[in-house]
Amino acid sequence: MRVIVFYKKQSYIQGDYVGSRYPGARKYGVAPLSGFFPIHASQAGDYEFIAQLLTSAAMHNATGGFDGNRCYEAAQRGEISDPYLCGMSNYSYAYMEANFFIINSALDAYSLLNIYNGDTDCQHDEFNECSIKQIGDFDGWESDFMDQVEAASQFTRKGNGAFIQSCLEHCAVEDSKTFESLSIDGMTVSQALQQWWESSGSDPAADHTYTPCTLNKLGEHQCNPTCPNQVNYLEISRMKKRNVPSTPHAYSTPMGL
């Protein structure tokens, strides 16, 4: 039996636990879609959205869903100051044991609207109405996103891989046409995922890692011509920033310190 898990943020949190439920599996892997949400300040410099996530996790004692989460186990050993941080993608990713293939945009539309919450007037049409300064802002976000992904040893661990592109999208490859057409250097998402899954499971991560280009300052800003233009994409209706009232919380910084 071979088992591969596709899901969003929950794959980072529960991927190892699900693997433990298939002890007889000949092969197991995790390929989360649009689930990496960086711990990052908004354009205004606050961490309000991240703080709301952590506060919600604490209020609901979300650690009840952390069975088999290696990050949570490390927190129990005192290696991480706050166990609720294990609900964040970059913390759980850093402790993942299962073979892992990230599918994500470094300019994820949901993250830009909710976490960054800046330059919102041009977050459409693949950034083509953005000013040069705004493109610089998004380039900075993309660089910070990649820094957080690459900070984990899992990013270069044998058996792992990633397909991270620059499209303004969230979960776009749920659409079969996009899954077959979105590409980096001629390699589509579907091809990259298939090659990773059919590999030995111990290939160098570099053999299955595809990283984003940088937005163009002049002309058409999107550097990847295969991006799906999300103006008419159904998912956009599920990404619009929610008007969540500001509430007191204990997390005024990304680490809750």
From TrEMBL:
It comes from the Eukaryota. Pfam families: PAE (PF03283). GO terms for molecular function: hydrolase activity. PANTHER family: NOTUM-RELATED (PTHR21562), PECTIN ACETYLESTERASE (PTHR21562:SF67). This is Uncharacterized protein. It comes from Lotharella globosa.
